[in-house]
Amino acid sequence: MLTPYRRILATPHLPLLLAVSLLARLYATGMALAITFLVAGWTGSYTLAGVVTSALIIGSGIGGPLRGRSVDRKPAPRLLVLTSLGYAAGIGLMAALPPAWWPVAPVLAFLAGLSQPPAGQVARSVWSRLPDAAAREASYAAEATLQELLFVVGPMLAALLVALVSARAAVAACAVLALLGSAGFALVVHRSGLQTRPPAARSEPTRRESPFAVLRSPGLVSVLVVMALLVGALTAGDMVVVAWARDRGTPSLAGVLGAVWAVGSGVGGLFLAGRGGQRLPLRVGLVTAGLVLLALVLPPVLSHPSPVLVAAVLLIGGTAIAPAIAASNSRLGALAPDDRRGEAFGWMTTATTAGGAVMSPVIGALLDHLGPAAAAGFGGLVVLLGTVLARRVPHPPPPTLTPASPAAPEPAPGLPVDHGVIRKASALVSRGECNGGVAVVAGE
Fold this sequence. Notes:
The protein is mostly helical. It contains 17 helices and no strands. The protein has helices at residues 3-9, 14-23, 26-43, 46-73, 76-95, 105-114, 119-127, 133-164, 167-192, 199-203, 220-247, 252-273, 280-295, 307-318, 321-335, 341-369, 372-390. The radius of gyration is 20 Å and the shape is globular. The model is unreliable at 201-206 and 399-443 (pLDDT under 50).
């Protein structure tokens, strides 16, 4: 079970880079929850809270390919610092708004999203150039699994700040974490001397190509749509948990339930994500089953469900999340061209954030008018479509043809660079992220 992960520990610099890259994304796992409480407190509407969250997601999605192209062509430390300054400024201003000024929040959220620090894309550009295919798969799995720790800590800290201080304090804390985490990751990347760009990006003049050229790679669009549907469904799950906990008068319970969901995902990732033979349709299909099961234990299907019952369902259903994210990100990394991989993962950010952007207001409306069960059930329907489409995603080329090999002539001091990525996700992210859930905005 743990054998694949030993490859990571044996690779110089890789354990520290993995750890710090995850810490640099911690803020994103609590951001959506904090914003939801802040805007719902201002307006009393989950729909408007979803609109603000969507603005952040849309901004991040639009900027994703541009940041990804920059990762392929420019020094990563400077990019991380500059984007984190813009992001922290936008989120900090939103946290300082008077309640009556809430219509300004979507604008600030959108501008902040445009400047979201690309910690995930930078990390994945390093991971993707590991010459050892087994080490790459282990890296994808480790990121997906360890990312779940973020979805335990991030939402729990955000919910704790909401309960003990205020939603405004939780949003401001996320802004500070984004700035400090990105600066720390930039420092580690700089000191390691690792390259995040392929040799061609440093030795050849920049070619003027369409920003959509990378999407012509066979199968890339299909896997991006699958990831968008997956993250959209996980966004639904996160919003459902937050709304149910808030409506029953126990807002801090949202962080606990989110942590339970993340623990289930981490357990699933530990046992399954690092194994070979990524069965993408099966893994996405199991996420569908988890959301349908959640819908059956929430109001109005069950009038007053026990938090223990809901937690048990989240724990079981969560075991499918990390394996699904690991499989989809691994497939994306294998299908993307070597010299456009950062850009491909930028499009992943766009796809996953678009999934969350579309789902957030829809789920908010379902929560306002039909209740948590309907919202969770709709999330299950969305990821069911992803399961069907996953069957059309082509398999990656054989390991001997892995695109990581061109980077082998140019190892950075001490580490052959590459490592597949993972997202809650997303976040997805992660989940992903969301993710975790709404924290899927962490997918960056």
